[in-house]
Specification:
With 637 residues, the protein is of the alpha/beta class. Among the domains are: 22-109; 112-186; 212-297, Jelly Rolls (Sandwich), CATH 2.60.120. The protein is built from two helices and 41 strands. A hairpin with a 2-residue loop joins strand 22 and strand 23 (407-411).
């Protein structure tokens, strides 16, 4: 055997790990540990080589002759000394490496810890009670892992650390649940997102995971469920969600039980607050990491807001509506109407009396989901009370409400008409009530104004009587008003003019009396307005036309402006008549302007929610007022 050249020992990696350099610390510790694992074998190989070479030297010395033996012995002694020196040097180097590794291990211990805190897996701030004295600097990448299941973890950066309290800003999670045994360690920073493809097609199917159902909560953690398809087993009303991993993140929720989802500051439910039924799906999209949009897909395949309502209930007095089914409903809430003003003047010349009609109440329409058995409260506001005493302003209706889960409607009553005994001033009409809380909120129709524009000849000494009709309930956002009345020119004494009541679909015409004794406009119809009248002789305007098939179940709106009970328009006023017809459904009654001395006027009854007409008389014995139309609510389902 021959002497073998000694093997080499790899040098320790440099530079050494520095705890003040967190960006390279982890990688350098990993390199040192790797060297530490391989260097003992190399040192052992050197020792084996030394022993082998020594044995070979001894064998050579024994085989030599006496003189050569002495020289060989001397050579062997020198060789042994040399090898011993080399071994001593290798041992010293190994000791140096062991000391460095020990120091590195001591540093590494400062980067790991444990905790028994009960922490829910999810994004955001997560607080752990752990050991003190760790080298956990703010913004350092760190991870807490469930010691019983490595698939459960919270990853992020150090938000704060002091004493035994560590707060992690979690931005990446795995698994779900609330572990109580954690291993905590500094980790490498998450790499930057790759460029990806601007566009393109997947080479194969993309198979997404189904997540576990999150715990019952008003803000369930759907992002930490471990999948994109997430079951919801809770019946708790959902008002929002925790922060999403990033804007654009999506989750599909499948309802295993009925629950409500409602609009909130960070959640927009398309179509408004809804009841999600078992079997329905809800698509959640993160607009930002903290704001979300929800779209519901019915398991039945039916639209979320179905227009195929088959039943209706009508409440005319305050009370409770109890939902008979679970599903889409629609409420029409109508505020009450105001009453028209009344005025009467004694016989004489140069007297002008005017009265305007009352206005209709506001209308609110709302689609909502109801659960069978849920109760909704209707508070019917009082219509404007009938004025009394022959000369009085009309009265406004009060506010009606309809409230319950997912719906809160409010409709103000129409304002009351007024009266005047001024010769020249214009008397303005009443304005309709407003509404709020609905998907659609409509202001009620108003009443026309009365005015003496100018008169010539003997006009200023005339007795003039004017009145306007009541406003109608609005239809499809359009307010329908009664016409204005004015007088001008050389008039016959006495003169009287009145406008009809507005219809649900048409105003009543304006009236301008330029000569003669009287002029009136017809009532508005459910399809068209009645024409305006400009008259120099006694004239009665035509009524507005009716619609052949307009209806709001269970209310029929097909009539013309004749004032019949089935019509939609108000009755017209007559100069010699002591009254007018009742208005049709939801329509205003016409004004009454009567100059027949001693007549007893009989105003017509307005439609629900509409205004009653004004009544003005000269020398009349009595001028009774009429209350505004009543409030109501219709629920379709």
């Amino acid at each position: 055997m021959a002497i073998i050249t000694p093997p080499t020992i790899d040098p320790a990696p440099l530079p050494a790990a520095q705890r003040g350099d967190p960006d390279t610390f982890s990688d350098r510790v990993d390199s040192l540990v790797t060297w530490w694992e391989t260097s003992p074998a190399q040192i052992g190989a050197v020792a084996d080589n030394v022993a082998h070479n020594a044995t070979e030297a001894l064998n050579s010395a024994t085989a030599a002759d006496g003189s050569a033996a002495a020289a060989g012995a001397a050579a062997a002694s020198a060789t042994n000394s040399k090898n011993a020196a080399a071994t001593s040097e290798a041992n010293a180097h190994a000791s140096e490496l062991a000391s460095a590794a020990s120091a590195t291990a001591a540093q590494a211990i400062q980067l790991v810890g444990t905790s028994s805190s009960s922490v829910l897996i999810g994004t955001g701030a997560k607080t752990y009670v752990t050991q003190a004295g760790k080298q956990w600097v703010a913004n350092t990448p760190i991870q807490a892992t469930d010691s019983t299941n490595a698939a459960n973890f919270v990853n992020g950066t150090v938000s704060s650390y002091g004493g035994t309290s560590l707060v992690i800003n979690s931005t990446l999670t795995g698994g779900s649940g609330t572990p109580t045994s954690w291993n905590i360690s500094v980790v490498g920073a998450q790499g930057a997102q790759g460029p990806g493809n601007a566009a393109g097609n997947a080479a194969g199917a993309i198979n997404e995971l189904k997540g576990t159902a999150p715990a019952s909560s008003a803000t369930p953690d759907i992002w930490g469920a471990g999948g994109n398809y997430v079951s919801i087993t809770s019946t708790t009303t959902v008002t929002g969600f925790p922060n999403a991993p990033q804007a654009g993140a999506r989750r599909t929720l499948i309802a295993q039980a009925d629950f409500s989802i409602t609009n909130s500051s960070n959640l927009v439910v398309r179509g408004g607050t809804r009841v999600v039924l078992s079997g329905d799906e809800v698509e959640i999209v993160a607009d930002t990491i903290s704001t979300f949009h929800a779209t519901i897909k019915r398991g039945s395949g039916r639209a979320v807001s179905s227009l195929l309502f088959t039943r209706a209930e009508l409440l005319l007095t305050s009370g409770t509506f109890t939902a008979k089914i679970t599903g889409p409903h629609r409420a029409y809430l109508q505020g009450p109407g105001g009453s028209g003003g009344i005025v009467s003047a004694a016989s004489g010349s140069g007297v002008t009396v005017s009265a305007t009609g009352g206005a209709a109440g506001g209308t609110a329409i709302k689609d909502f989901d109801a659960v069978a058995g849920a109760a909704y409260t209707f508070l019917a506001g009082a219509p404007g009370a009938a004025p009394t005493g022959n000369t009085s302003n009309g009265n406004a209706g009060s506010t009606s409400t309809f409230t319950g889960a997912g719906v809160s409607l409010s409709c103000n009553g129409g304002n009351g008409g007024t009266y005047s005994q001024s010769t020249t001033s214009v008397l303005l009409g009443a304005t309709g009530g407003t509404a709020s809380g609905g998907d659609f909120n409509y202001q009620g129709g108003g009443s026309g104004s009365c005015g003496i524009n100018s008169q010539t000849g003997t006009g200023p000494s005339n007795t003039n009587v004017q009145a306007t009709g009541g406003g109608s309930v609005s239809w499809q956002s359009v307010m329908y008003n009664s016409g204005n009345v004015s007088m001008t020119g050389t008039l016959t004494n006495p003169s009287q003019a009145a406008s009809g009541g507005a219809g649900v679909g048409g105003n009543s015409g304006n009236v301008t009396l330029t000569a003669g004794t009287s002029a009136v406009s017809g009532g508005g119809g459910s399809r068209t307005a009645s024409p305006s009248v400009t008259a120099s002789t006694t004239t009665t305007g035509a009524n507005g036309a009716g619609s052949p098939g307009l209806n709001i179940t269970p209310i029929n709106l097909i009539g013309d402006g004749a004032g019949a009970s089935s019509g939609a328009g108000g009755g017209s006023a007559g100069s010699t008549s002591n009254g007018n017809n009742a208005a049709g459904n939801l329509a205003g009654t016409g004004g009454i302007a009567c100059a027949s001395s001693g007549a007893s006027l009989v105003p017509g009854l307005p439609g629900w929610g509409a205004g009653s007409g004004g009544a003005a008389a000269f020398g009349a014995a009595t001028v009774p007022g009429m209350a505004g139309g009543i409030s109501f609510v219709i629920i379709l389902y």
